[in-house]
Amino acid sequence: MSKIIFSDLDGTLLNDDKQISAGNREAIRRATRAGHSFVIATGRPFESAKKVSDSLGLNEEGCYIVSYNGAHVYDCYRQEVLLHRTLGRPVVEQLFALADEAGLYIQTYQNGEVLTKADTEELRWYVSHTNLVPMPRADVLDYLTTDPSKMIVISLNEHDRLERFRVQLEAWSHGRCRMIFSTPKYLEIVPDGVSKQMGIHFLAGKLGVDPADTIAIGDEMNDCEMIEAAGLGVAMSNANPDVKPIADYVTQATNNEDAIAEVIERFIPL
């Protein structure tokens, strides 16, 4: 029975140096050659996730990317976008205004560029972790010509400010967008109804795979719904402590070891 493996990137497939171990590479290769599907499921923009996919050689049948926390689904083999959800222009404009009023940094994306209003510590920190192109512009809304799939409000040291902002926008966000913390530093904003869980259901339906034959592996709060929705939910050994209780299995290895290989060897028929 073919299975679908959904793996988060940061803190899961990638080690702390943003590299993929040789053991994980080989295990993924054996799984896909045995007829299973492997899916990168990340909050990162598509262009950033695609670089990781290319480095793994994930261009065979059964290789996919779920990016922007579920707003974008891509078939790596056919080079085809299967799903694309966006935030409406009025929502984007209002979010920039609301973040400005709160004195918080906010960014969005276009064609692999990180768009924001000014060159700040938050922007420099973010691009150093994602290898995307920084594009600080005072006229950011004029430069933005497409509706984006995600925005992020970032505070490097003051999570409480992000939480207050989330609470402030809670009522306004209904029917407009969805807010979720991917790390204590990142309040991510995606189209209403979008999640990694949605990506699991969409791909399982598209491929005719029973959700019971899906495996989801993650480490942070934005992985929780995906872990709960999968047939087998896996939390990393290094996961946020709030993630582990909802998982069916917690790896012995960390993201700096061969945790993905551990899951594949334990649960995937090869």
What does this protein look like?
The protein is an alpha/beta fold. It has two domains: 156 residues, Rossmann fold; 103 residues, 2-Layer Sandwich (Hypothetical Protein, Haloacid Dehalogenase-like Hydrolase, Chain: A, domain 2). 34% of the residues lie in helices and 24% in strands. It has nine helices and 14 strands. The strands form two sheets. Strands 5-4-3-2-1-12-13-14 form an eight-stranded mixed β-sheet, sandwiched between helices. A six-stranded mixed β-sheet has the order 8-7-6-9-11-10, sandwiched between helices. A hairpin with a 4-residue loop joins strand 4 and strand 5. Helix 1 runs parallel beside helix 9. The longest helix is centred in the middle third of the chain and has 15 residues. The mean pLDDT is 94.
Feature tags:
270 residues; alpha/beta; Rossmann fold; Hypothetical Protein, Haloacid Dehalogenase-like Hydrolase, Chain: A, domain 2; 2 domains; eight-stranded mixed sheet; six-stranded mixed sheet; 14 strands; globular
What's this, in brief?
The protein is α/β, with parallel strands linked by helices and about 270 residues long.
Give a count of the beta strands, DSSP E runs of length 2 or more. 14
What is the average of the pLDDT values? 94
Q: What is the CATH first-level class name of the largest domain?
A: Alpha Beta
Strand residue percentage: 15-25%
**Considering the protein shown, what is the CATH homologous superfamily of the largest domain?**
HAD superfamily/HAD-like
Biggest β-sheet: strands ordered side by side in the sheet: 5-4-3-2-1-12-13-14
The radius of gyration computed from the alpha-carbon positions, rounded to a whole number of angstroms, is 18 Å
Number of domains: 2
Helix content: 25-40%
CATH topology of the largest domain: Rossmann fold
Structural class: alpha/beta
What's the helix count? 9
Overall form:
globular
**Main sheet makeup:** 8 strands, mixed
Strand/helix succession: EHEHEEEHEEHEHEHEEHEHEEH
Low-confidence stretches: none
**Terminal residue distance:** 11 Å
CATH architecture of the largest domain: 3-Layer(aba) Sandwich
